[in-house]
Automatic annotation (TrEMBL):
Pfam families: Acetyltransf_7 (PF13508). The keyword Transferase applies. Keywords: Acyltransferase, Transferase. The lineage of its organism: Bacteria, Pseudomonadati, Pseudomonadota, Alphaproteobacteria, Acetobacterales. Residues 4-155 form the N-acetyltransferase domain. SUPFAM superfamilies: Acyl-CoA N-acyltransferases (Nat). It comes from the Bacteria. This is GNAT family N-acetyltransferase. It comes from Plastoroseomonas hellenica. PROSITE patterns: GNAT. The keyword Acyltransferase applies. InterPro entries: Acyl_CoA_acyltransferase (IPR016181), Bact_Acetyltransf (IPR050832), GNAT_dom (IPR000182).
Amino acid sequence: MPPAALRDAAPGDALSLARLHRTARAAALPGLREVHSEAEVAHWLATTLMARHAVRVAVAAGQPVGYVGHGLDPRHGPMLLHLYLEPGWWRRGLGSRLLGEALAAHGGRLSLFCIARNTAARRFYEHHGFRVAGSSDGAGTEEGEPDILYVRDAALPHDQHRTGEHA
């Protein structure tokens, strides 16, 4: 596969990113209850995530293969809001690149929510210095899935990103 280039998201990316979002979630979390249609996800991406936050897209052969969205949350401060990759790009270093951009934008400090049964994502975030700060039984989530609040307080003393090992 050719390497992916990173660029800022554009409004015209919303539908492609919504498809990518749904594909990645289905592969990572079989049986996950999706409460929003692809069109609803695309609308939210265009009108909320891309309109209010920073979104970077990884593109290979002219197609989006991953994206990251991050910004400030009133309750949690700097927050990773979305990080999704096409399954064929998992464990090739692209997730680390996208996460690295979000971390750099916030001085190494980010929070995020992760569905508890997504063990691959949990390993990825823990590898990158995130620690568990809380959890829920899922009663307050759209999907009804227990989730975990992860935090990363500051830059690590050494770079733990090893290209190709994770995401």
